[in-house]
Amino acid sequence: MNQPTLIQMNGDQLRIEDVALIAREFVHIELTSEALENVRRSRAMVEEMVQQQKVVYGITTGFGKFSDVMIQGEDVSKLQENLIMSHACGMGDPYPVEVVRAMMALRINALAKGYSGIREETLLQLVELCNRGVHPVIPQQGSLGASGDLAPLAHMVLVMLGKGEAYVNGQQMSGSEALKAVGLAPIRLQAKEGLALINGTQAMTAQLCLALYDSRVVLESAELIASMTIEALRGIPKAFDPQLHLVRPHPGQQESARRLLAHLSGSQRTSQQGELRVQDPYSLRCLPQVHGATRDTLEYVWTTVSRECNSVTDNPILFTETGDVISGGNFHGQPMAFAADFLAIAMAELANISERRTERLVNPQLSGLPGFLTENGGLHSGFMITQYVAASIVSENKVLCHPASVDSIPSSANQEDHVSMGTTAARKLRTVISNVTKVLAIEYLAAAQAIDFGTGDLGAGTSKAYAELRRVIPRLHEDREMHPDLVKAEELIKKGTLVIV
């Protein structure tokens, strides 16, 4: 499938896959004529309200607890610039460029819906930053996930004003230097624009989009790697029989069972019920039930985040058809917070069960194979410590899976007295997925080593997975530094090499 070179945005049709392409492949953005017309209409509403000196939150008033402070007409523009500078107070390491680009793309799409009152030229400035590869330096810490991702998005907007810092072609420089490097000039924000740019859920949603995209790759890889372990241990595929899963018709469970059977099709390495044992341990037999539950969770979160990608999440919201300006709470990140916490738990379980399969591979009392998968145990330790590493990472994930969304700390003098912590949840989720990939890489390497002790053809899918690994990592005959091998196996998973069905 050919990769698009341009993604058109109108605020309604942005897909998670599109966000990943913009973030990682630097695909360009173009606004539709319909979107630009909607932007102009909502801007006309703002101009009229300023002219008539109407009392409207964030346009002619201060923010948060200062919402009852009126702003005079000559200070309306200064109010927006002050908003950005005061809110750009994030801390910690900067977000990776891919997260920054996803954040920019999502904010552009939300503003393109035409409910936010931003000027056309201001929105196009943000589009040009993304298209020309100007990536604001955005610290990762500082968002409560309600009133939007204020601090992260403020750092994004600073560069539009010629302030802050940005990366251009991998070089970090001041915001003014970054704009000059790509032929752009700073803008001066007008009424409502600062608020429109930073009051939204795009920092958490950006991370969720990339996490979801990666989660699909990790899940498909996990099932193929598990299939290799089944062959290494001469497992019983009968547990994946369709009729078994028809009587417990969870869609994810049925799909996982189908894929496991497809991966093992034609294999001479499996066994029948009663041939070697009556039934397998849970880490093999219950794969469809465990992986299937993760599949169903992933689909739920995918739907929820897809909806958020095309939502208006700032405040107040302008309705051009009715003339209403409504102050509400669409910036509250609770839906994303729950989604991120739920997905972290579901993805962590892939690592939990993978580590148990790795233990079965390396433990001679459970596998019937040489201890720790080494030909000369004692002199060589083989895969002994790789299981330790998997256990350590699994334990780390258990800490990270404590839900961030159960916490709330009031802010802005108790005006903003309940927050989502959704951005924290999304940051933790990305770490969990990275950890899961590492645990699966350990099983992948161990399963291939265990397969080398047996004979017979591998399955339709597992033969490909085995060949891909052995193309870059040779069999372990005597102890060697394991870290480089594990990193190579991890990269194969991350690149989607094992997504073959």
UniProtKB/TrEMBL annotation:
Keyword Cell inner membrane: no
Pathway linked to the protein: Amino-acid degradation; L-histidine degradation into L-glutamate; N-formimidoyl-L-glutamate from L-histidine: step 1/3
Location(s) in or outside the cell: Cytoplasm
Domain of life assignment: Bacteria
Any GO BP annotation: L-histidine catabolic process to glutamate and formate
Principal place of residence: cytoplasm
Protein name as annotated: Histidine ammonia-lyase
Annotated source species: Brevibacillus parabrevis
Gene: hutH2
